[in-house]
Design a protein that fits this description.
Helix content: 40-55%
Number of domains: 2
Order of helices and strands: EHEHEHEHEHEHEEHEHEHEHEHEHHH
Number of helices: 14
Distance between the termini: 20 Å
């Protein structure tokens, strides 16, 4: 039954990305309980995310014009629709939501922060909004919250609600492995993902033991694509490493994979690690951000120092010849995901927040 409260969610666009997908998952999950409006700043809607919205009761509103016109449009809609809770996802969304609902006593504004790596001017703006105009700020990871608390954010107004994942899969079966062990990484091609270190790890593995049969697939898109391709080519690793750009059949890659690798030197709460866990994959991940929340060392994966190719290659070798360990880690990782990061947990946390405010 739909509650009398009305929810608004503001997101920059529906281009494929972690925050964008989470905003749609939130809208979809809350639409079963409330009247929900999803406000889009820029009319970029990827087919994959549009499919989530179709056949749902979400009211999709495209905000048009310049920034001031968008503020006015959002302000009018918040008032006319009697929106009681307005959630913002990214930095510009925080500003837009705060200004649109300013002095509207019937609407509570919740900021959103997804990263702790921000320019100083964004820190200052978000801190002002947090302290003066917002009911609270929602972080999707504990490490990010702790970082902002040190910069003056209020403990009582800083809330962690982790992301969720909606991928579903069946456990991998013993004896289903291939002769070649498939390792995948999924993410934007940016420096924080530190693909040079993972590529160096693969180089050392195949150089030290040419009999090792591994295929490393780097999946994503971004400005460092050419640099990554050149690094693979210059090290003569094309036989062992493949780059795949934003495939439509991402699930097929997860299903075929034997190991998931995260070599990042910086993370918040990794959506791609969560997806890997949902596909019953053992995870090798750097000990950064909230990775230790998702990967329990020698329980469902292996935690390693950042920037250490030898640690990556050693971890791969631990799992390479041990199918039973890979299957056990995959099973335990999926269980951890179910217990802490399920869509139901995600929905319940937001409903609890809404009903208490």
């Amino acid at each position: 039954m739909v509650n009398k409260k009305t929810i608004g969610i503001v997101i920059r666009s529906l281009k494929i990305g972690g925050a964008e997908k989470q905003s749609v998952l939130l809208a979809k999950s809350l639409a079963a309980h409330y009247r929900v409006f999803l406000f889009i700043q820029y009319p970029i809607i990827e087919t994959q995310l549009n499919d989530y919205i179709q056949n749902s009761s979400i009211h999709l509103i495209l905000l048009r014009g310049n920034f001031l016109q968008k503020i006015r449009a959002l302000k009018n809609k918040v008032r006319k629709a009697n929106i009681t809770h307005l959630f913002a996802y990214l930095s510009s969304d925080n500003v837009l939501a705060a200004l649109a609902a300013f002095q509207n006593k019937n609407c509570k504004i919740f900021g959103g922060i997804r990263s702790s790596r921000l320019p100083w001017h964004k820190y200052m703006v978000l801190k002002f909004l947090h302290q003066s105009l917002q009911e609270a700020t929602i972080f999707n990871n504990h490490s990010g919250r702790n970082h902002f608390l040190k910069k003056g954010f209020k403990t009582s107004k800083s809330i962690v609600i982790p992301n969720c994942t909606d991928f579903k899969s069946v456990p991998k079966q013993e004896g289903s492995s291939h002769d070649t062990i498939y390792i995948i990484s999924v993410g934007r091609f940016v420096s924080a993902k530190d693909y040079p270190t993972s590529i160096e790890a693969i180089k050392r593995l195949v150089t030290n033991d040419p009999k090792v049969k591994i295929k490393y697939i780097i999946i994503g898109f971004g400005k460092l694509e050419l640099e990554i391709r050149n690094l693979i080519s210059s090290n003569k690793l094309s036989k062992h490493i493949e780059v795949v750009i934003n495939p439509d059949n991402l699930k097929d890659y997860y299903n075929k994979a034997d190991i998931y690798l995260c070599s990042s030197d910086f993370e918040g709460l990794s959506n791609s690690i969560m997806e890997a866990l949902s596909f019953h994959l053992p995870v090798i991940a750097t000990h950064v951000g909230d990775n230790p929340q998702l990967v329990k060392h020698n329980h469902n994966g292996i935690l390693i120092p950042k920037g250490d190719p030898d640690a990556i290659s050693d971890a791969i070798l631990q799992l390479y010849d041990d199918e039973k360990k890979r299957l056990l880690f995959g099973t335990l990782g999926f269980k951890l995901l179910q217990e802490n990061y399920s869509p139901q947990k995600f929905t319940d946390r937001y409903i609890s927040l809404i009903e208490q405010t």
